[in-house]
Amino acid sequence: MSAANPEPGLHKLLLSEDSDDALDKRLQDHITASLWSTQQHHKSTTYFQYFKEECEVWRLSDSPVTIQTYQDFLDLVQHLKRTRNEKRSAPAVLDFFPPLQADDDEKTSTPSLSTESTPNQLPLLLKHRFPHCDLVSATNSIFLTVRLWLMLNVGSSALLTIFPGRSSPEWTEDQSLDDFIDSCFPASEWGPRLSQWPFSLNASNLERVGGFELVWTDHLADHLYLNEDLGTITIYHHVQVLRGLLQAKSPDQALPDRLLTETLQTLALIIPRANRDCKTWFEKVHTKDAKKVDYGAGDVELLHWSRSPEKYKFWGQRLITIKMAYDASEPKNLGQWWHDRRRRVEWYTFWVAVLVVFLTIVFGLVQSITGVMQVYYAAHSGQST
After folding, report:
1. Which residues of 224-239 are buried (b: 16+ CB within 10 A; e: fewer)?
2. How many angstroms separate the CA atoms of 370 and 252, rounded?
3. Tens digits of per-residue pLDDT, 99-124?
4. CA distance 157 to 167
């Protein structure tokens, strides 16, 4: 990093409540170019909304971190890429930080927002900015960086109560970054249990027919998670992040390309852009929370192989679980009965029965009213004579 010619805004404080340190367009462009090798800030509104919220939540949690600036964050991303095969506690990984303070050393101030560097110090490499740091702050810095970079909900226990709906994968000190990612996304080889994913398995039917609630998530590892107790299915929607990571094509890319591609294709399956009902459904939910939902989630092209179950090494089991729950669901009200066309014969039988009952009631009412009117007119005609 060159201190003489710093990139615009990179030395602003990452976890700051000062408006002068806020993300602006030029800074966002540089971050997307660094993380994804592309500048598409105008398409990344939802990602940076997530980015800002994560930084704010981490700041309020009072979990100490060593990194201070946006440049520190980007430098640590590059360092983690280079050391992705090293254990999290390995010297090669911790070499990014100032020397770790030994337990029996005299306590020194931990680099954090409470001990900000001077403006002249901020352009320096982090390891040259402070005499010491502690292991907790260094570890938290790694966790925060992975949360912002790969959108994996790893880190401080103080944040678990803030995001109660998210799972919290554990990254042990004996695991490398690659090992941790493998534990979050285990690939499985399993034979096809059906010829193809049915067209009926989509967001509109899951809600209208199956009675499930689709919930958006910012945590990639929670994608397609079915909570049967709550009747919810979580959907990871950050299409621009997935596409950006795919476009990077760097040899040290952390997330496997196949995982990113599969995730995009599961969105194309669940929210098919050619399905009118799904398009209407997505437009409605996106309008409610445009800043929190990536519009690209409803506009992913379905590739020719995407309906083949055996192609899904990472998400196949969760798709099967959702399909089984959808097939086992029963209509609970007339609206669900009307939209449920999975078993055509039962659907026609049910609605013919409803029609017969309705007509019976109508004709019964007509007959009763006619009888009453006949008695009424007969009585009045007798009085008139």
Report:
1. bbbeeeeeebbbbbbb
2. 84
3. 987 655 544 444 444 355 666 677 77
4. 12
